[in-house]
Amino acid sequence: MGVRGLGAEARRARIAERVQHAGSVFVDDICREFGVSEVTARTDLSALEQEGRLTRIRGGAVAPPSAAAISYPAERVAAHLDAKRAIGRAAANLVHDGDVVFLDTGTTTLCVAEELDDRSGIVLVTADLAIASYASLNLPHARTILLPGRLWPNRLYLTGPEIRERLANIYGDIAFLNANLVDAEGSCWTEFEPDARTKRLFMDHATKAILLADASKVVMRPNEQVSRMERYPALFARLDEFDAHICEREPWQEARPAAGSRRTVTMVAPS
What we know:
Layout: H1 8-22, E1 24-26, H2 27-34, H3 38-50, E2 55-57, E3 60-62, H4 74-78, H5 81-92, E4 100-103, H6 107-113, E5 123-126, H7 129-138, E6 143-146, E7 150-151, E8 158-159, H8 161-166, E9 172-178, E10 181-182, E11 187-190, H9 193-204, E12 206-212, H10 222-231, E13 234-238, E14 244-247, E15 265-268
Parallel strand pairs: 4-5, 4-9, 5-6, 9-12, 12-14, 14-15
Antiparallel strand pairs: 1-3, 2-3, 7-8, 10-11, 11-13
């Protein structure tokens, strides 16, 4: 069977090999070599990008940036990936050369780090092992400070009083914070109290605090809020404590929470 008769899985494996060895591949080449339509070629590239095997560009794809030595599970990275990447790009636009940047733990803030390759002289402060690993391998013009602490079980971040001690003399220009849940009252929640304390420290030590929460994290229905709060019981902030909330779309389909009406701007990240 020639390459024109390959099934989707085998064809995508060949495409991934091409990118790995040649560094790039183009839609026209895929159509010509495998005898498929442009729609099928783009679908293949999108599927491979979701798997982290390439990075889409206009008209084709290139090899992804060097992988981090420590990384999140693929299924967690892939969840709402388009939204997280859009948020990451919008957040990175707020970072200037020379800034001191606090990056909270999580895959959305990892997407912010992935958009900072053209910034020079920045300092990244994080307790996230995956972000620190990525930065050390891919951001040569950045200085990375990995905060000390206890490695939380089954997580890739550090917590504990050591973080407060290390931050005693570190103040930044901007902090990017993730939330597992933003409820209808504008309260922002996370999994564990030690993580909540670190988030609070980042907010207190930065001139600006930016909330990164895609629309799936904003929950307005009371029944769903109760269910989510059982999983994310640690409150760390109110919406109006942030300078901005970046989301891939307008999350407040009905009334905006009173807690967010006074100060926080919602920035819709273009896809």
